[in-house]
C-alpha cells in the first residue's frame, strides 16, 4: 500500500501499539500518545458500513490479532477523534514472532468521498430525479425480487398501473413547472396511501406503478386503488391556483393474471386502459 495510507499496529489483545502520521491525520489526532494503548474496537471500529453497531466479538479485525487470520474489507466504518465516522477500506494481517501470534498490522484508506460518489451515481441511475421515487429500472428489479418471494411463499401479489387523466392540459395551460409540482404531489400522495412495504415508481411522463406484495386478496388491491384515487383527486393548491387531476388505475394479480414481470405489467396496463376508456 502507498505511504499515504494509514497504518497502525495491534497487540495480541487488540490494543493499538503504533500509528503512522497518515493514520493520525485521517483519524484527526495530533500525536501518537492519544491513541497508543487504546482498545482498537471501542476506540475506532465500532460500526459496519450499514451503520450497525458491532460487538467486540463481531469486530472483523479481531480475527487478525486473536486468530491469526488475514482480513480484508472494502467498506467499514472508523470513528475519528472528532466523533465523525469515515468509510474505510482496510486489510488486517496477523503479526507473528517465531510462529507465535503477537498481534496484527492494519492498513487502511479513507474512501468516504468515493463511496458517497458511488451512492450518488447509483441513486441517479435508479430513482426518478423529479419525484424521488424509483424509476423503471429499479421498479423492474424490485418486481422481479418480490415475484421470486411470492413464488417461494405461494403468496398473492398485486401490481397497480396508475395513469393520470387530463394531465397534458395542465402542462399546456399552466406550464411545465406547475406540471412538475403536480407529478411530485401525486408521487407523495400515492406513497402516503400505501404501506411502507409497497413500492411506488414512475415509469413514464404521467405513469406510475405500485407493487403491493403479500396481499390477502384482490379486495386489498381494490381498497388501495380507492385510497389512491381519492387522494390524487383532491385539488392541489399550486402558486395560488387550484389544480385538479384525474386518475385511472389498472390491477394485475400474481399468479392469476401472469407470473412474470412483462405479463403482469402488460395486464395491469391493459386493465388501466379499459378503465380509462369506460370513464370517457
UniProtKB/TrEMBL annotation:
InterPro entries registered for this protein in UniProt: DGC-Regulatory_Protein, GGDEF_dom, Nucleotide_cyclase, PAS, PAS-like_dom_sf, Rev_trsase/Diguanyl_cyclase
Originating species: Solemya pervernicosa gill symbiont
This protein is called what? Answer: GGDEF domain-containing protein
Which Gene3D superfamilies does this chain map to?
3.30.70.270, PAS domain (3.30.450.20)
Pfam families, A to Z: GGDEF (PF00990), PAS_9 (PF13426)
Q: What residues does the GGDEF domain cover?
A: 155-280
| Molecular-function annotations in GO | catalytic activity
Q: Which cofactors does it use?
A: Mg(2+)
Highest taxon listed in the record's lineage: Bacteria
